[in-house]
Structures are given as C-alpha cells and as structure tokens.
Hints:
mainly alpha
Amino acid sequence: MTIPKRYEITDEQWQRIESLFPPYRTGRPPKLSNRQAFNAVLWILKSGAAWRDLPERYGAWKTVYSRFRVWADTGLFEKMFRQLIDDPDLENVSLDSTSIRVHQKATGAKKTPAASSKTKPSV
C-alpha cells in the first residue's frame, strides 16, 4: 500500500470507483492514467488553484481539463456520488453550537419611533 499525497485517493478508494471510468476507445493508450487524472482533478477542486497551476507530476493541465470535461459531460461524477453515498466521509464536517442573541428589533418586535424624533425643538 502506498501512502497517497495530499488531495489524492487511497488504493482502497480507487478500487471502489475504478470500474466507473470509461474504457479507452481507440488509438494509442494515453500517457495519463484515469487514476492520475482523477487525482489531478481532486487537487484542483480541493486546492482551489487554476488549471494552469496544476503540478507537473499530474501531467499537462489541458489533458486533465479535457478529461474532466468528458467525465462531467457523461455524468461520471453523479454515478460516483450515487455509489459512494452510503459511505459518507465525515472528515470535513463541522458543527457549531454557538448561539447569538439577536436585538429585539430584529426579531419582529413592534417598532416605535425614537423619543428624540417625536418632537423637534424650535429655535
């Protein structure tokens, strides 16, 4: 078992989704494997970086982007989410139990004009 780099999937995770990726059609085999391209997409999505900032270890950003578009257009990500939905990853869940008291005017209380605005002194 290899230890994945940051933002990459593990061997076990890859085995669960590997069969969902479309097979290669024609021509010579691509230099970039589906797993490597998927890890590149995860890196982009999790880091928030631009496609052009993709590290060289993932290959050419244009290749990764074109494969991402094909996967998105064919509904691969929806299929993947449907298959994995029964096993949620709770790594990034955050619950906040903070309560903040709201000013009475923000809760719909009756609004009355301020005392200073009722009468204006005349000079």
